[in-house]
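Please, why this fold?
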Amino acid sequence: MTAVVHCLRTWRHYLLGSKFVVRTDNIATSYFQTQKKLSPKQARWQDFLAEFDFMMEYKPGKTNAVADALSRRVELAAISRLESPLLGWIKEGLQHGAKVRILLELTREGKSRQFWCEDDLVYTKGRRVYVPLYDNLRREILRECHDSKWAGHSGIHRTLALVEERYYWPQLRDDVETFVKTCLVCQQDKIEQKSPVGLLEPLPIPERPWESVSMDFIVNLPKSEGCQTLMVVVDRFSKYATFIPAKKDCPAKEAARLFMKHVVKYWVVLTTIVSDHDPRFTGRFWTELFKLLGTSLNFSTSLHP
């Protein structure tokens, strides 16, 4: 009966003045309106229910399938069924990587306090399965707990709670936060929870050559002499372009060395550099280096789907 009263209080503004039927699988509740002896709490409920025009009908639980579907959480996904194909993937991942194999051996020998081994899986506190860094395994679990229909693109805290219910790996919180913040659907459909941004400001037009340049990387090119990436530097005044070959994984220090060798060496220390929000350009090394050189770093508009 508590559930009935709660529902009527919640939907009171819709139900007042309308005749409706309350169906319940509790046979005792169906006789509440004709009950003669009431407790003080039931009397207060009866006084509240007098506002509504309704009938109560008994409906056996076997035939009340709609209510069951709405009130019970169905186990649909890998997060709630550890018998899913993900387990085989996890077991396969535990056989790859030196650190993971060492952890598996220690747990089998009982030398680890934090982890234990059971059915070729590694468990930790709360009987959560350890997920190795293997292929796209961790990302697939995050996708299941965030992108799937039953997860509904929840926020960071709820997605983290869903993952932590069954799984564990180092830096789990950071991975969940990054995954949710970069979710394309969430960025397109969810309302911004912050103040609106200001008006866009166009970049000032340079007054002479090599005063300001724009730069970016072109990646995943056919391999040539060990290089698969091009650092492209374009003078914003003359549109003169410099193409600098680089390794596939070109860190900030290497990018700075190439920039000094192929741009600053032949031209001059620049006034401004325009780039995107690549971690190499926003990192501490790059920003401190050009701060010492007196170069201003400007960034293009970030992705806003």
Remarks:
- The chain has a mean pLDDT of 85.
- DSSP finds 13 helices and eleven strands in the chain.
